[in-house]
TrEMBL record:
GO-annotated molecular function: oxidoreductase activity, acting on paired donors, with oxidation of a pair of donors resulting in the reduction of molecular oxygen to two molecules of water
A Pfam short name: FA_desaturase
GO biological process, one term: lipid metabolic process
This protein's name: Linoleoyl-CoA desaturase
Region (Disordered): 15-38
Length: 421
């Protein structure tokens, strides 16, 4: 189709950073810089990479009608929920209509952001060649523009996942979520900062996507940022007009409660998104890396970094859908352009790979994951934090790492020639 022939430059850059090519380069480094991988040789890691690549190729080659029907069904459901919410809020003076309308609109916004918008903008459905469900055309129900979010999230975050100094998602420039981040007195209040961020999360992400910290570092000027500021201003204006003026005005005497319902729906969506994303990225067991980790990093080592730098949320199929399947954050970071509905099917294979290679597979129920993240944020609001966090990271490592070492030794012993023995 003609619409797909011209790919914007920022999308080209993002697609170049996707697996299987990724940021990796041929030739694995022999440096294992974390306790989680010190038992693995370079050959072990490359074999792991081959197995992961085989999983990816098998799934991507099997995409078809059922997958396409799934995303179209989710989009229809989301739009139905939004229409229902808007209609119910026309009678927002009636408390049951206010509650039902707010809940329906909140669910619609969660579905649009998580299972639809986030994943469409990752290019998960580009293979369908449907111009309406394509990463170059989709504009989501979010203050941040699609293009700016793709730059900071798809490209920077997914390429340099958890690399300190490269991945700006570590703390979003306002929180200390890793003990290796230098402490500052402002972090004393980060428990409150985090609570406020959760309620206005879409606005925080939009400001974050502008990369205004480049101005403070002298890397850019306000003039350089003006075009992006104008784009975000236009997008934010449309969002505010839609949720707090146009649709509430249609309700006539219910204007105020209808506007409040729209505000609450946005807050609910923001808090939910915040919880899901923080559970997937900031549990205490999740590892971060220095920039040296990127030197001569192979594709297989990139895969391992994604596994060590992510965590899953355990739960029902409905929970997975409402999280945009980011409850399978490990699988998403391994294969960011794989349709999200497939993560659940490959998760047992990824978990088994981790067991066989003695790598941690971080997963737990949402209450436990989020509670641990909040406790970590509170702890790291004070100086230090290295010892407690590192001890918990060590405890998170499965016994499988020792089994992997033993199996490798047995394998090496069996492959020796009699003369060598």
């Amino acid at each position: 189709m003609t619409v797909l022939e011209t790919i914007p430059e920022h999308i080209t850059r993002i697609n170049d950073a996707k697996t299987p090519t990724g940021p990796g380069r041929p030739g694995a480094s022999t440096a294992h810089i974390t306790p989680s991988t010190e038992h693995l040789s370079a050959e072990d890691i490359e074999r792991l990479g081959v197995e992961l690549q085989a999983i990816r190729e098998r799934v991507m080659s099997s995409l078809g009608d059922e997958d396409a029907a799934y995303i179209r069904r989710v989009i229809r459901t989301q739009r139905g929920l939004e229409v229902a919410g808007r209609v119910l809020l026309l009678g927002a003076l009636f408390p049951p209509a206010f509650l039902a309308g707010t809940a329906s609109l909140a669910l619609a916004k969660i579905l649009e952001n998580m299972e639809i918008g986030h994943n469409v903008l990752h290019g998960q459905w580009d293979w369908m060649r449907d111009p309406e469900i394509h990463s170059t055309n989709w504009e989501w129900d979010f203050v941040s523009t699609a293009a700016s979010w793709q730059q900071t999230h798809n490209y920077l975050h997914h390429t340099y996942t958890n690399v300190r100094g490269k991945d700006r998602d570590i703390g979003y420039n306002v929180l200390r979520v890793d003990p290796d981040q230098p402490w500052h007195p402002a972090y004393l209040f980060q428990t409150l900062t985090n609570a406020g961020l959760a309620m206005i999360f879409e606005w925080g992400i939009a400001a974050f996507d502008l990369e205004l910290d480049q101005i403070q570092r002298g890397e850019a000027t306000w003039k350089d940022k003006l075009p992006e500021l104008k784009k975000m201003g236009r997008k934010a204006g449309k969002q505010a007009l839609k949720d707090f003026v146009v649709f509430p005005a249609l309700s006539g005497p219910s204007f105020v409660p209808a506007a409040v319902g729209g505000l609450l729906a946005n807050v609910i969506r923001n808090v939910w998104s915040h919880a899901v994303i923080f559970c997937g990225h900031f549990p205490v067991e999740v590892e971060t890396f220095s920039e040296e980790r990127l030197e001569n990093e192979s594709q297989a080592e990139w895969y391992v970094r994604q596994m060590l730098g992510s965590a899953n949320i355990e739960g029902s199929v409905l929970l997975h859908i409402m999280t945009g399947n980011l409850s399978h954050q490990i699988e998403h970071h391994l294969f960011p352009d794989m349709p999200s509905r497939r993560y659940r099917t490959i998760a047992p294979e990824i978990r088994d790979l981790c067991r066989r290679y003695g790598l941690p597979y971080h997963a737990g129920p949402m209450w436990k994951q989020y509670g641990g993240v909040l406790a970590k944020i509170a702890r790291l609001s004070f100086p230090g934090g290295h010892t407690p966090v590192e001890k918990r990271r060590r405890r998170a490592l499965p016994a499988g790492r020792f089994a992997a070492t033993a199996l490798r030794r047995v394998r090496d012993g069996l492959t020796r020639t009699p003369a060598a023995a």
